[in-house]
Amino acid sequence: MNIPNLLTILRIFLVPIYLLIFFSDLENRFFLAGLVFILAGISDVLDGSIARKYNLITKLGIVLDPIADKMMIFAVLISYTIEKIIPSWILIAIGVKEIVMILGGGILYLYKGKQVVPSNIYGKTATVSFYAATLSIVFKISTKLSEVLFIITVILNILAFINYLKIYISKRNNIEEIS
């Protein structure tokens, strides 16, 4: 088990910690949960950077990294929706996209020769936008700005999904041609 994979596993463990703090009775629970979210974001950047710099990219990391990302995204979206911080349509829009990507990724991996769609600039941009929108709430920046950032995040997620779909279809078709 290498350091990038350990950092990814740490991110997975941070999800329930985030939720426990977010739904606790602590006085600054949203801010403290936000700090856990920030720690998860830092570990996400670190694991990718270390893996690329030291050629420590593994199949396990390629599979676990997006799972860790999606777990934290769902934790934040669901918790923010429950607390009425964001409208439910944001959870639905991003949630549907994430679920379809999980299913598509699982199909490629399990049934199409262990193919994986790697992260790309579209997904990374959508993730950065999600972090910006979330942090605007954690640090209590303007409500209007937070709303705009979440709308931008939804749009970027839709664009990332369209790009993912093109890659998925191409990989699926290439595998079928070989079979």
From TrEMBL:
Residue ranges crossing the lipid bilayer per the database entry: 7-24, 30-50, 62-82, 88-109, 121-142, 148-165
Catalytic activity: a CDP-1,2-diacyl-sn-glycerol + sn-glycerol 3-phosphate = a 1,2-diacyl-sn-glycero-3-phospho-(1'-sn-glycero-3'-phosphate) + CMP + H(+)
Subcellular location, record wording: Membrane
Major place of residence: membrane
Gene Ontology BP, a term: phosphatidylglycerol biosynthetic process
Pathway: Phospholipid metabolism; phosphatidylglycerol biosynthesis; phosphatidylglycerol from CDP-diacylglycerol: step 1/2
InterPro entries assigned to the protein according to its UniProt record, in alphabetical order: CDP-alcohol_PTase-I, CDP-OH_P_trans, CDP-OH_PTrfase_TM_dom, CDP_ALCOHOL_P_TRANSF_CS, Phosphatidylglycerol_P_synth
EC number: 2.7.8.5
Top enzyme category: transferase
Keywords: Lipid biosynthesis, Lipid metabolism, Membrane, Phospholipid biosynthesis, Phospholipid metabolism, Transferase, Transmembrane, Transmembrane helix
Topology term for the membrane: Multi-pass membrane protein
Transferase recorded as keyword: yes
Annotated family: Belongs to the CDP-alcohol phosphatidyltransferase class-I family.
Function: This protein catalyzes the committed step to the synthesis of the acidic phospholipids.
Matching PANTHER family: CDP-DIACYLGLYCEROL--GLYCEROL-3-PHOSPHATE 3-PHOSPHATIDYLTRANSFERASE 1, CHLOROPLASTIC, CDP-DIACYLGLYCEROL--GLYCEROL-3-PHOSPHATE 3-PHOSPHATIDYLTRANSFERASE-RELATED
Record's protein name: CDP-diacylglycerol--glycerol-3-phosphate 3-phosphatidyltransferase
Species the sequence originates in: Tissierella creatinophila DSM 6911
